[in-house]
Design brief:
By secondary structure, this protein is an alpha/beta fold. It has a single domain, classed as P-loop containing nucleotide triphosphate hydrolases (Rossmann fold). The chain is built from 8 helices and 7 strands, in the order E-H-E-H-H-H-E-E-E-E-H-H-H-E-H. The strands form 2 sheets. It has a 5-stranded parallel β-sheet, sandwiched between helices. A two-stranded antiparallel ribbon has the order 3-4.
């Protein structure tokens, strides 16, 4: 699905810890190996700083509303890049552990496909922006184990568990109720190995039962 005058914009989204970045990197490699000019954009660079991103008085809802500077991201980078295929822009950028912004230059040339990767991309206000969207499906339990293993925010396992259970997962539940992201996605990819194994066992058990039982 290539659109001659502009880039294809695809959203790769799911809960925190679903494996969005890993899947996106693999897709970019596959597309490039097949001659498609593709690049990934991670929304984490557009995080608000912690004093804006978090609020202990209403942690989940505040994070859902204020985690990411979506309006700036779409206006300064994503939509101009989609429409023009190329861009060079300097923006304020923040990693997850940053307490101050740094200047960062995005530069892309003549892209066929943009893979925009991150949380909350299927909020209702953004759904019309995309040509394609993929929900990376994963259980909260599996996502939490991945988050503890990667230690991305430099938190202890106990603090990671607390953050995910009080902020990130409840914020995703708000996303589910308000935006119905799985229903809005044009495709769903199961990236939960435990679920795949469970489903595989269920299928094998069903196939081994005598007919009529």
């Amino acid at each position: 699905m290539l659109i001659g005058c502009r880039s294809v914009l695809a959203a790769i989204t799911g809960i925190d810890g679903a494996g969005k970045g890993h899947v996106t990197a693999q897709l970019v490699q596959i597309l490039q190996a097949n001659g498609v000019r593709a690049a990934a954009v991670n929304v984490d660079g557009w995080l608000n700083l912690p004093d804006r991103r978090f609020d202990p008085s209403n942690p989940a809802k505040h994070f859902y509303l204020h985690a990411i500077r979506f309006d700036e991201m779409f206006a300064q980078l994503v939509l101009p890049l989609r429409d023009r295929r190329s861009i060079r822009c300097e923006v304020e950028y923040a990693e997850e552990t940053a307490v101050a912004y740094r200047r960062h230059v995005y530069q892309f040339e003549d892209l066929d496909v943009i893979l925009l990767e991150g949380i909350f991309l299927l909020k209702q206000a953004f759904q019309s922006y995309y040509d394609l969207s993929c929900w990376i499906d994963c259980s909260f339990d599996t996502a939490l184990k991945r988050a503890i293993a990667r230690g991305q925010e430099r938190l202890s396992p106990e603090d990671t568990t607390r953050a995910y259970r009080t902020i990130y997962f409840p914020a995703q539940e708000i996303h589910f109720r308000r935006d119905l992201p799985q229903a809005a996605a044009t495709m769903i990819f199961n990236n939960d190995t435990r679920a795949r194994k469970s489903n595989g066992r269920a299928r094998r058990n069903a196939n081994s039962r005598p007919h009529g039982s």
